[in-house]
Design goal:
The complex is a heterodimer of chains A (441) and B (492).
Chain A: H1 9-21, H2 30-45, H3 60-63, H4 76-88, E1 95-100, E2 103-104, E3 118-122, H5 123-128, H6 132-138, H7 146-154, E4 159-163, E5 173-179, E6 186-195, E7 200-209, E8 217-226, E9 231-238, E10 245-254, E11 259-266, E12 271-280, E13 286-295, E14 300-309, E15 315-324, E16 329-338, E17 346-355, E18 361-370, E19 376-384, H8 388-396, H9 401-417, H10 423-440
Parallel strand pairs in A: 1-5, 4-6, 5-7, 6-8, 7-9, 8-10, 9-11, 10-12, 11-13, 12-14, 13-15, 14-16, 15-17, 16-18, 17-19
Antiparallel strand pairs in A: 1-2, 3-4
Chain B: H1 2-13, E1 29-31, H2 38-47, H3 52-66, E2 90-92, H4 105-114, H5 121-125, E3 136-142, E4 145-149, H6 152-158, E5 161-164, H7 165-171, H8 173-179, H9 190-198, E6 203-207, E7 216-222, E8 233-238, E9 243-251, E10 258-261, E11 264-269, E12 274-281, E13 293-304, E14 310-317, E15 322-325, E16 328-331, E17 337-346, E18 351-354, E19 357-360, E20 366-375, E21 380-389, E22 397-406, E23 412-421, E24 427-436, H10 439-447, H11 452-463, H12 465-468, H13 473-487
Parallel strand pairs in B: 3-7, 6-8, 7-9, 8-11, 9-12, 10-13, 11-13, 12-14, 13-15, 13-16, 14-17, 15-18, 16-19, 17-20, 18-21, 19-21, 20-22, 21-23, 22-24
Antiparallel strand pairs in B: 1-2, 3-4, 5-6
Helix pairs in contact in B: 1-11, 1-13, 2-3, 3-9, 7-8, 10-11
Classes of the chains: A alpha/beta (441), B alpha/beta (492).
Chain lengths: 441, 492
Amino acid sequence: MNVVLAKTDTGRALSDSFALARARLPGAGKVADLRRQAFDAYERAGLPHRRIEDWKYTDLRVLMREVLPLAAAPDRAALTRADAALKLHAIKSVRRLVLVDGVFAPKLSDTADLENGLGIRTLREVLEGGDAALQAQLFTPDNSDSMVALNSAMVTDGLVIEVADGAVLTQPLHIVHIASGGTPAAMFTRSLLRLGKAAGATLVESYIATEGAKAYQVHDSLVISIGDDARLHHVRLIEDGREAFNISSAVVTLGAHAHFNTFGMTSGASVSRYQAVVVFAGKGSRVETNGVNLLNGRQHADTTLFLDHAVPNCASREIFRAVVDDRGHSVFQGRIIVRPGAQKTDAKMMTRALLLSDEAEADNKPELEIFADDVTCGHGATTGALDESLLFYLRARGLSETEAQALLIQAFVGEAIESIVNDDLRELAIAAAQRWLAARG
Amino acid sequence: MSAVQETVDRVRRIDVDQYRYGFETLIESDKAPKGLSEDTVRFISAKKNEPAWMLEWRLEAYRRWLTMTEPKWARVHYPKIDYQDLYYYSAPKKKEIGSLDEVDPEILKTYEKLGIPLREVEMLEGVVRPEGERRIAVDAVFDSVSVATTFQKELKQAGVIFMPISEAIREHPELVKKYLGTVVPTSDNYFATLNSAVFSDGSFVYVPPGVRCPMELSTYFRINERNTGQFERTLIIADKGAYVSYLEGCTAPQRDENQLHAAVVELVTLDDAEIKYSTVQNWYPGNSEGKGGIYNFVTKRGDCRGDNSKISWTQVETGSAITWKYPSCILRGDNSRGEFYSIAISNGHQQVDSGTKMIHLGKNTTSRIISKGIAAGVSQNTYRGLVTAHRKATGARNFTACDSLLIGDKCGAHTVPYIEAKNSSALFEHEATTSKISEDVLFYCVQRGLSQEEAVGLVVNGFVKDVLQQLPMEFAVEAQKLISISLEGSVG
C-alpha cells in the first residue's frame, strides 16, 4: 500500500518543537548534522504503526498519537520531588547516577571517589567536547527505526561510562531515570557504556516517577560495547508512572569470549517498548537475555530482541515470561539470526505467557533466521491460564485464592529471575515482582 | 530397507538437473491474446459460456486488482513479473469432448507418462477389484481447462458432484453462487484477486449431507504451454456430516523462463463434516543454476463453518522455483478442528515461504501444526505461521512443531511464527528446532554399510515421517520417492 502520509498537525508541532529545542540540544558541527539527518529520517517515517512489521503489535499512532514537547530542565522544586522519589527506590551500595527529566542531576548522584579505571561523563559534555570517535560511537544506532531516529535527533543528556581494560568494578552502577511530572513532557536520553578488554561491571537502570506524575514520555537509548573477555551484568526495571510512555532501545556489541547477562522487568508505564539489538562480533561469546512483563489495567508492554550471531562458536539463551491481567497486552518478539559461516552457534529462546483474565492479550513472535548448517537453534512458546489443578491443590491446603495465585505466578516468573547471576540484583528483581503482586491484592 | 534401496536406485538413475516430468506435449492450443485487460477477462468468460453474474464477478475482481500492489513481505526474491507478457488462457484445440475417446491422444499420453490413470480401465473391462481396495476419481486440468473427469457416474450415484468448476458454474449456479468467494473473497490478496478475475478451470466438489465420498477425489494439474499462467480455482463443500478426501498433484515442463501459477482453493465444511486435502506439489523447480521454474503463488483456505467440523491440510512441497503458500483454517464452528501437516523441501536455488494460519473463532476449537522444512543447496526455506485465538474462542488449543533440517552450509532455514492469544483459556504450545543431520547418526549408518546418500535418505525419511503418515497410501509412497529425488545431489 503506497499511502502517502500527509503531515499531521502533531507532525508539524514536533517539527516546530525540534526547531525550538535545537538551541538547547548539545553539540555542534558534525553532531548537529547527524541530528538533522536523524530528524529528517523520523519526519519521513513518522510514528511507527502496525504496517511496519517490527511494530506490528505496538501501533504508536494509535497508542501514543503524538510526541510531547521536550521537557524543561528540572528546577529546584523538581529536584526536591525527585529526591523524595529516589528514597523510595534506593538500592544499597550502588553508585547512583540520576537523570531528572532527561538531564543529569549531579547533586543527586555519586560521582566522587571513582574506582580505578572508571570514567563517568555526561552526554552533554561529550557531545560538546571534541572526541569525534566517541561521538561517532554514540550515534551508532541507525535511523532505520523511526523512534531511534527521533531519539538521536532530540537527545539532551545521558551518561558516558568507560571502564578501562582489566578494571573489574566492585560497585554496581545504577542509572535512575526520574520524571518529576510537573507538566506532560518528553525526555530524550542516551547513555554509553564501554567496557575494555577483560573488564567487568554491573549496570542497573531504573525508570521511576515522582508521586502523582502526569503523563510523560521517556525516549531512552543505550549503547554498550563489551570488549574481549569482558563481562557485563545488566538489569532494567521499568516502574514508570501508570500514564507514562517508555520507548527504549539498546545496541550491544560483544567482543570475543565476552559474557553479557541481561534481565529486564516491566511492571510500570502505560505503554512501553524495549528493543534491543545484540551483535556477536567476536567468537566464543555468550549472552543470556531474560525478561518478565507484569501487566494489569490497560498496560501495554512490548519487548523486541534481535540477536545477531555474526560469528562462529557463540551461545545465547533467552527466557521470557509475561503475566497479563485485566486488559493488559504483552508482546514479545524475539529474532535470532545466524549469519552464513556462524557455525557452532547454540541459540535457544523460550517465551511463555500467563493470561489471568479473559480480556488479556499476549502476542509472541519468536523468529529464527538461519544461514549456517552446523548449529543447534530452537525456540518454544506457550500461552495459557493458571493451571486449575495446581490452584486446587494449593486451595485444598488452606491458601486463599489470591495467595495461591501469587505463589504460582512467582514460580512462573521465577525461572527468568533466577537466571540473574548477581545475588543483589536478583533480590532486587524479586522485590519488584513482589511489589507488583502485593499491589494486585 | 527395500524402500530406501528403491529410493536410492531411483536417485542413481537420474542426473542432476533431471526433472522427471519436464517433457513437453506438442499439441495445438487455443490461446487468449497475450496480456491482461478487461477484454481478456471477457474472453475467458465467453470461452466458458459463463452467465452474466460470473462475468460481473470477474470484472469486479479485475478492477480491484488494478488498485492493488504485489505483496513484498515474504522472504522470496524474484524479478518483477510482467503481467502483460503472459497468456491467461490456453486450451488444447479440440472442442466439445463427448467421451474420453475424443480427447487428444497426445494429452492422454501425457497423463499416462505422468502415471495418472484417466481411463477407468478396470471399470470398462469389468475387472473385479479386491474388496476394500481404493479407487481414485481424477479431474485432469491441462493448462487452462479440464480435459477429463473420471468416475463421474459412480460419484453421481452417491450424490457427490465432482466436475470442472466451469461446468459447475453452468450446471449448479446456486451452489457456486452460495459458496464461491466466501472463504477467499475477491479482495483477499493480490494473487487471489488476480485469480478471481482470470481463473479458467479447476475442480468443484459438493458432498451432500451425510455422504461419505466413496472414493478419493483427485485433480492433476499440468502446465504445458509456454508463457502461460495457470490460474485454477478449486471449491470443495462438505455439507453436514459429509466426508471427502481430496488429492492434488502438479507438474510442468522444463523451461528456461519462469511461469506463474496463482491458484485459489476454498474449502467449506458444515456441521460434523470433514475435508482432508492433500497436495503433492512438484512443479518444475528450475535448473541447477536457478533458471526457469514455476512461481507458485497460491491462496488456500478452509472454513470450518459448522460445529464439530474438521479440515486437514497435508502438503509435500518439493517443486517450484518460488513457493508462496499458506493453507489456512478458519475455525468458526464450535469444537471444530484444523490440521496442517507439511513437508517443504528446497534444493538448488528454490525459495520456499510457506506455512499456515489457524484462526480460532469458535469455542473449544483445536488445531495442530506439524511442519518439516528441509533446505539443501543454496535454497531458502521459511516457515511462516499464525495461530490466533479470538476473545470469544474459549478453550482454544493449539500445538505447533516446526522443525528445520539444513543440508549444506549455503542454504537457509527460517521460522517466523506469530502466536496471538486474546483469551485466557486459550492454550498454545509452539516449538521449533533447527539443526543439521548429526554426524554421529550418519557415522552410525555408514559404519553399518550404508552409503552417505542412503544414510541421508534414511534420516530424512525419519525426519518427515509424522507428515508422510498423514498422506493417503498411494501418495505416501510417491512422496517418499519424491523427497529422495528432490534432495538428490545435496550430499557430498
